[in-house]
Amino acid sequence: xxxxxxxxxxxxxxxxxxNVSGSSHTVRFGKVGARGQSKTKEFDSAEEAQKSADRLxxxxxxxxxxxxxxxxxxxxxxxxxxxxEDVIAAMRTTISEQERDPEMLELMMPKARPPATAxxxxxxxxxxxxxxxxxxxxxxxxxxxxxxxxGTHLLLGTSDxxxxxADEQIxxxxxxxxxxxxxxFDREAILPLLVPEAGMGIRDFLAFRKSDDEEMTIVxxxxxxxxxxxxxLTSVLEHFLELESAVQATHRAERDARLSDEEVxxxxxxxxxxxxxxxxxxxxxxxxxxxxxxxxxxKAVKHLSxxxxxxHDLMTDLFGGSHPRVGSEAWLEGVALxxxxxxxxxxxxxxxxxxELNNALxxxxxxxxxxxxxxxxxxxxxxxxxxxxxHNLACIYVRSGRIEEAFQMCQAAADVGYPQLKSMRTDxxxxxxxxxxxxxxxxxxxDVIGTGRTQLPWNEEHAAALDKGEGVEAFGQWLVDEGHPLxxxxxxxxxxxxxxxxxxxxxxxxxKLWKGYVDSVLAPxxxxxxxxxxxxxxxxxxxxxxxxxxxxxxxxRLSTAEEREEALALLADPHARFVRxxxxxxxxxxxxxxxxxxxxxxxxxxRWTDITQVTSLEPLSEHRELRALDISNSAVAxxxxxxxxxxxxxxxxxxxxxxLSCLEDHPTLSNIKLDETDVRDIEPLLSVPHLCRIGLWDTxxxxxxxxxLKKHIQDAEPLHHEAIMDGIKPWVSHRQVGAED
Length: 741
Fold this sequence. Notes:
Layout: E1 2-8, E2 13-21, E3 24-31, E4 37-42, H1 46-62, E5 66-67, H2 78-98, H3 102-108, E6 111-112, H4 118-128, H5 134-142, E7 146-150, E8 153-155, H6 158-162, H7 165-174, E9 190-196, E10 204-209, E11 218-222, E12 225-230, H8 233-256, H9 261-269, H10 279-286, H11 294-306, H12 311-317, H13 329-340, H14 350-366, H15 372-379, H16 389-399, H17 403-415, H18 421-425, H19 437-440, E13 448-449, E14 456-457, H20 460-467, H21 472-481, H22 486-498, H23 503-525, E15 533-535, E16 543-546, E17 549-554, H24 561-570, E18 581-583, E19 603-605, E20 628-630, E21 649-651, E22 671-673, E23 693-699, H25 703-714, E24 731-736
Parallel strand pairs: 15-16, 17-18, 18-19, 19-20, 20-21, 21-22, 22-23, 23-24
Antiparallel strand pairs: 1-2, 1-5, 2-3, 3-4, 6-7, 7-8, 8-9, 9-10, 10-11, 11-12, 13-14, 16-17
Helix pairs in contact: 2-8, 7-23, 9-10, 10-12, 11-13, 13-14, 14-15, 14-16, 15-16, 16-17, 21-22, 22-23
């Protein structure tokens, strides 16, 4: 609760404000229009804090203070308002002097939002649990956020703090930052202030470092490392003003010494002879990429291509200048010149030139440049001179459908020691190559498991640990060491579960890595059903993957026979080794061989599977984790293979089961359904200690025959497990076959 009062007479204009937050209140007072002073006092309870506030308000009113109904009339520090306006004006001037494209100019201009109301500020303080630093309050009363405050950065307003926008941006950029002991993303320790939008800039991130002080230090992080500290937001804005002034001064000095645009065009198109050396030649070449007119660019490219540029001209001057927007006509013409001028291998700048080729191909791939394939054909001559070229060229050739040539580029990259070879293994842009045996042979070998459509590095030590639900971190790190992309997925999933302070950041990273893994590894192998694969953090779990391994298999969402066939193929894949839940709805099975090696199964539901030809449960005999099994409508007669499992729920309706002796003294069985069977002897069930639900509908048993069972279950102690719902009540569902309802 916040109350604001003012006192005005011929001699003075004063304000007094109190804000109650939990078991404390903060009083701010001073001259109207100034920041004033503030004091915070703690109490034993929220009730005591409120009583104290009520007494102080009454006292002020007795002294002539009047409450201002319009809370937006809270005082604004005039000097601070002037500072904010000066900073915005300086930023706008800098951009106006440097950007000539009207559309870009409009997009890049800083924009101040309307001032925040006292209620806006109060909501943030309530969410934070304490008053905001005074300098931040002053800013919000002038502008409730500044868009494009520093490039693509946003100086946050109240809505950005409350609606999750800041958290979303921080999560999106966090994976790019260096590890640091001073974690800039720990929301328990910081209040974000200046945040780059949508990961567009990861250089600077400003935040208040939380403390018990009224005003808090602002830390400037650069790529995860704290590089500067400021006493308050006023200091930050003054620093911004100094930076803008310095940039403008430098720009003006360069402008005064610059050739005019007309002179640059005249030199570069041959209208005036280009000096053989000197500052004029250097500046003219340096500003080649500033030319916007496509026709002029083409004339310049033709002239410069015929002028015999030296490697120094090419690398130091021509391509060392400012870059136009990637994909623009000027940019495309400049790249065309880069590829048109070949630098000899013995030239000192040859290495720099091939690096420029690689960078240009990377950007041209992103913007789908029309001449991309032609440029790739030029650059492939140098694939063994630059270790990075092969990867980019392979992506280009895959997009063009030239798969064999794409593989050759990958092979060349591996041959010359491409430093990021492991990243190539997971690059979804390489599409069909990711499961090509020749491509896989380029990477370090490891033992593999499975006969499915994908492979995984494996060893029995990790398998045994995972069987017990242990060793996840060791498994993930081992996969990373083996160079397999699943390793990062495993470790990210583990962090998302075990690091509560970084929960939002870790979950976001886990989802991104999982999506990349699906796109690059699983989707090429299972194209029909890959869009049904979900991460365990997501809401729908028909094909749910945890630690990158299939945890739940349910074909409910599949609508075609082809999809179901592909889904069954997934069960032979190493990624399905530890599936816990199985429901192959709509499938037709003649036997249960497909689940023989799925030793981690805890629940099997064949209710909507055609298993009418299945006669044996022997493939399940080695399963030791099975808790729930539904084999209804099968031809199974013998339950012996599953009798020693820790089952809680067994559904064997409409089967050939008659003998229950193997279930005698079963230690965990709580729920069994034998409807529409020929069971006649239920005495073995009387020794099952936890049995509490029994289905015997349409069996030969009489009411007298099931009476002992009804008595037995009244004394049973049911076991609760995820296989059956909590709140279970003992019952026997019985009707003798042929009897009327």
